[in-house]
Every structure is written in structure tokens, then in C-alpha cells.
Amino acid sequence: MSAAKPYQIRKAAVLGAGVMGAAIAAHLANVGIPCLLLDIVPPGETKERNILARSGLEKALKAKPAAFYSQRGARLVSIGNIEDDLEQLRGVDWIIEAVVERLDIKQALYSKLESVLKPGTLISSNTSGLPAHLLVEGRSEQFRHNFLITHFFNPVRYMRLLELVPNAETDPAAIAYMQQFGSEILDKGVVLCKDTPNFIANRIGIHGFMSAIQHALSEGYSVSEVDAILGSSMGRPKSAIFRTADLSGLDTLLHVADNLYQNAPQDEQRELFRVPEVLREMVRRNLLGEKTGQGFYKRIKHPGAESTILALNLQTLEYEPQPKVRFDSIGAARTIEDPAQRMLKVLDGEDRASILAGETTADSLIYAARRAEEIAESIVAIDEAMRWGFNFELGSFEVWDALLQQPAILQKVFKDRELPALVQRVQSAGQDTFYITREGQRQYFDFKTGIYQPVPKPAGNVSLSAARSSNKVVRDNGSAALIDLGDGIGCVEFHTKMNSIDEGIIEMLRYAVEEGQKQFRALVIGNEAADFSAGANLLLILMGARQGEWKMLDDAINGLQQANLLLKYSPIPIVAAPAGRVLGGGCEIVLHCSHTRAYAETYMGQVEVGVGLVPAGGGCKELLLRYGADLETQQARKTGGTFTPARRAFEIIALASVSTSAREAQELRFLRKTDTITVNRDVLLRDAKADALKLAEARAAGQWQPAQAKLLLLPGPGARLVLEQQVDNMQLAGKISEHDALVGRHLARVLTGGECSPIVPVSEQQVLDLEREAFLSLCGTEKTQERIQAILMTGKPLRN
């Protein structure tokens, strides 16, 4: 075994500019790694030898969902071709091969790479299933030592899973480095796999797909029925089975299934991977899914009306209208939030949905338990692979645990089937479950030792759930909690539904600043939910407006405004740690904090106009200040004047602009240039706490001072008329409705300072008063109330 080598990735190269290769290059650029994107020169091409790489980059720039955090990131990607630019690979630290899934083509490319590799260059393949030991056949010792498989999932930026598959001679230091790099730098959930066909996620996932389609064909379930049954009610994405297949591409799924059939001859379930003729025929007819516009589903567009989605009849291969699919067990489970309990409710039913759910669950769980020791280092790796690779709410062994705790449902699901040996081991030698919690620490059954081991966590991990278990909660009012993170740092955690802002959250923010400063040196505002906050509690606003509770609404809005001012002028530093959706009032809370440590996938914006309102928690005021409306900046500014900040803020708020990433949030100025970004969600609170500690130490050293109130110079009624003219023009052109125009005029009045003089400064409170006045006025309109009701009932904006 070679001695440990120091690895460092400062520049990378991706070979193959197809969908995956270009997306990998884009994501490397997202995290600041310059990347060379190369592809072949098309046969006979003489003019544009880089055409394939250029085309791949252009497609990545147009991709939806976006492949780049920001379009500016494309500057870090340079293009070329493998024939002319091979020598440039001498200057990179990591080469990712992402060419067509053929062993001979990959091996021919590796032969070329051998001539230009420098010592210490990491080489990896993005193959979805070819074994590592076959890929490195005939390669030099240095190549084998620096080679491993890095299997990304599509779309690369958003899918969490990164499977690492070393070959028998891969340098352990390279494996350890890529685990750390993949997690900390690339924001991936890294799973170490054994070198077996299709690794972990596709091995278990394709088995599940083939099981579902075999049951559908033999038992007469329609495409629509299968997806209605095996979707969110069973802890899976709404895309379920067949819609997911359309998104992945049926040709890709068949390739993986064929690979398993050919390369896993000892698998007792091998025959399940024999592709049914109906799927072969779909591929022959080019019914591949999204990439060809039709697969198991087909969208029919109607001019001026909503599209119709047809479903494929698996017997006739003709498209038919989708019937309304209803099952009692699915209906009973729909409102249950806990995924395990939701799943158990379906499995305990007696209808066709329960039968299919039970059959496919039994198939999948037995297969995972039988394959576990062959394909993975632990059950945790399998569960993480399924959650991160297929967006399942629960991994295979987490589902086993739910069933093991319900013997009657376990018996019903497995009937006369023998439970796998691994499950029997847990029942006899373990504690009847694969996971247990001891002293606030989650542990898993280690099949290597037969004892429970701690579930691995990132170094320095900060866990709010662990802090709760350790009695670190200082105060909890039901909507939010103040939790002691240690080292003199407190954390305000929201835990309402969608973390929507209510009276309890506002009260906790006030308490944390006013009383928390007596106990803590700095505060973090963050949580472990998918979304930081979806904004204000719209139901309470609608009820208050319809009941004419104007004083209650005025007090509630003023309460949020004053709480946000407390955050902004807090005598101790306050660090916001947003992730996911940070909308409306949630965005306003972040805008008022001393510093922000944002997760890279942060979607931030003031979206109040979508429900016929304007930001009223200080969002208008803060965006004006971010664009330079304060007196000091105005006095120093030579061009643009007082109108520019109002115009820019108006453009962003009126369009309900939401950042597609934390990087874009900086471009929109929801985040400052000095705010910092973390790419790994698992360590966001760790990093936010570290930022809070630095600011606390700077405060102790006299190097950090609380913010000071600012005066604003706003352009007044003349500028408002200009903005209103733009609104009127859009209404005349039919781009916005009459009510949109009314909202726009209210917003223009707030941002230009009402009736203020353009040469007389106004206070922050004066702008807050304008925000509150506009908000309440719009709440009183019937159309705004209709918009709020539509969002609450359908989740979709109403344009009335």
C-alpha cells in the first residue's frame, strides 16, 4: 500500500460534455473550482472543434432547474476538446470522466490520460454501474492508486447523493480526501460503496422500479394507480414510480437494469431485472420520458388553456386521459405528517392500494436486507443512499424499524415470507430495531460487529435535536425555542408549520434579544427544517382582515417591525442561518441580522405582491438601505441620486424576485457581500455558530459595534409618479391586472417615501409606518383577500 498522499483540488477537468458532464462542470464552478470541459471532436468537423463542449456548456446555462448558482459562474468553465487540449490536463488536480457508458470507450480514454497525468492527480469515473475493477484493468499502479468512481445523480446541483466506489488499490488517503471534499465543498451526501454492480442506490432503487412494474403488469394496475399509491403516501416523492422514470429517462433505467442482469449472475432476484417486452417496445418507439416529450406520461398543450396530461396504457401502449384515482387507505394517510405513520396507515388498509403497497414494500425491504452486507459498509450507507439518491423520506432500514415496532402490520405485509437473516439477527441479538437512541445519540446496528455504533456526523456538528435531548432548551413557547449551543452562543429555532411567523415567534425574538443577552455572547437564528421560513401566517392575516380586526393586525405588523429593529440594533451579534425557502417575513428577519451564514441552496425573496400585499416587516426599508438610500451614501454618491435605490428596490419587490441560490441572493442584495455561504446543509449551524463566536470575540476586543440607526433620503412624490407611470403602462399592455396595479402604486408610495421632500431625511420608523399603512390598506380589499385564500387553499397564486 502506498504512503498517504496530500491531495488538493484547486482545478478540475471534466471529460464528456453531455448532460451529466456539463452539469458536473457547472457545479464545480458553483463552489469556486475552475474547470476545463472537454469532449471529442465530431467526425468530419473542421471549423468548430470544440462544438460539443460549447454546446454542453450552453445547455447547462439554460438548464431548468438552474445548473449554476449564478450565470456568472460560467466564467470558471473553459472548453476544449480531447484531441487538441489533452496536454492541459497536466495542470489539473482532478479529472472526472463522464463519457458514454461503454467499457471499451472509457478504457481507451484512460490509456490517453496515462501519458499526461502528473503524480497526485485524482481520476474518477461518473459511471452509474460499471465496476471499478474492470475500469482500471491494464492501468499503471499510479493510475489505480489515484482512481475511484464518483457517481453523481441527476440533476447534479440538487441531488444530494454522491456514491464513492474505490477499486482494490485506491489510496486510502484519496478515499478519505474525496469523502471530505464531496461533503464539505460539493455539498453532497457522500456514501462509500463496495465495488458491486450498480453500487447501492441504483441496485436497490432499480429493484424497486422493476418490482412495481412487474406487479402492475401482472395484477392490472394502471400507470396512474401505481403513482397514486407509491408516491408521497409511501414516503416517496410525488413523482412516485413512473413519473420518476420519465424524469430519469427510460433508456437510462433499462441500461441499469440490463447491467444488473448481466453482471449479477448470483443474485437470487436476477430474473426480476429481465426487462419486460413492454419497456423494450417503449424504447423502440422513442417513448423515453421528458427527453423525448413522452414516456409513461404525455403532456398535450392547449393554446390559452391548461395542458392535459395523458397516461400510457401499459397493455395497448396508447395514451389515455387519467382517471381520478381514489383509495380509502391513501385518503386516510394523506393528512398524517409523520412519514412512518403515514406509510403504516396505507399498509394496514384492505384495498387495492394497500395490497400493491404491501407487495412492493416486502419485495424491496427483503432485497435491501439480503444485499446489505454485499453492497455496503453499513445499513446507514443504504438508508442515506435511498434518501439522498431517490428523495425517499425514510431509508430501507428505517422502514424496517417502523414495521418491527408494529408486529401485526409486519405479519400482514410479509405473510408467509421468511424474514432475512439480518432482520432475524436484530430481533435476537439486537433490540428489535436497526436504530436506537442512547443519551440523545442515534446509533445503528453494525452488522460487522453485532453491536450498536453511533451514526457518523460531520466534525463539529451542531445538532438542535441533540441539544434538546440534553436539556439545553432555555425557553420554548410552542412556536419557537431558545436553545443553548454552548460557548456562550444561543440559538433561536422556529418550529411552526413551514416555520411561518406568528405571535409566538415574534415574542421569542424579543425575548432572545432582551433577556438572552444576559446569558449569551451572541445569537444564531436557524433551524434544522428544510425551509428557514415561508413567511407570515397568512391564515391569521386573512381571518383578521375578514373579521375587521384592524387593531390586532396593526399590532401584529408593528410587533414584527419592532422585533426586527431589536435584531438590527442588538447589543450582541446576531447571525442568521437561512436555508431553503426564506420568503416574505422570513426574508425580513434575515435582512435585520448582524451577519448571515446562508446555505448555498437558499431561495430568498420578498413575495408579498403575489398575495396582493407589500413587505411590511421592514423589508422595503432594508432593501432601500441595501441599495444606498441612506443619507451618508447619498451625500457621497455623485450619480443616480435618490431615485436609483427606490427604482431598484421597486423592480425586485414588484416582480416578487426570489434568488435561485445564496450567490444570487447576494447579487439581489438580500445578502451582503460580507455574508458567508456554506455548501453543506449538515454543517450550516456549525458554521453559523463559528461566525457568532468570531463576532462575540470581536465585540469583546472592541472591534465590533452594534449597528446605528440611519436616516434615509427618498425621492418623494415626483419619483412616485414615474414608478406609477410604469405600472400604468404595464396595465395598459395587459401584462398586469387592475389589482396588480393597485398593489404596485402602494409599493411605489412606500419606496419613494410617501409625501416626503427629496432633500429632507426620513427615519427608519417613518418608512416602517408607510409599510404598515400600505399593508393594512391592501388587506382591506376584496381581491387581496381572494388572493390570500387561493394560496392557502391551492398553493397557487391567483391573478384576479
TrEMBL record:
InterPro entries: 3-OHacyl-CoA_DH_NAD-bd, 3HC_DH_C, 6-PGluconate_DH-like_C_sf, ClpP/crotonase-like_dom_sf, Enoyl-CoA_hydra/iso, NAD(P)-bd_dom_sf. GO terms for molecular function: (3S)-3-hydroxyacyl-CoA dehydrogenase (NAD+) activity; NAD+ binding. It comes from the Bacteria. Coiled coil: none annotated. It catalyses: a (3S)-3-hydroxyacyl-CoA + NAD(+) = a 3-oxoacyl-CoA + NADH + H(+). Gene3D superfamilies: 1.10.1040.50, 2-enoyl-CoA Hydratase, Chain A, domain 1, NAD(P)-binding Rossmann-like Domain. The keyword DNA-binding does not apply. Pathway: Lipid metabolism; fatty acid beta-oxidation. The keyword Mitochondrion does not apply. Residues 11-196 form the 3-hydroxyacyl-CoA dehydrogenase NAD binding domain. One of its GO terms (biological process) is fatty acid beta-oxidation. Residues 199-298 form the 3-hydroxyacyl-CoA dehydrogenase C-terminal domain. Keywords: Fatty acid metabolism, Lipid degradation, Lipid metabolism, NAD, Oxidoreductase. Belongs to the 3-hydroxyacyl-CoA dehydrogenase family. This is 3-hydroxyacyl-CoA dehydrogenase/enoyl-CoA hydratase family protein.
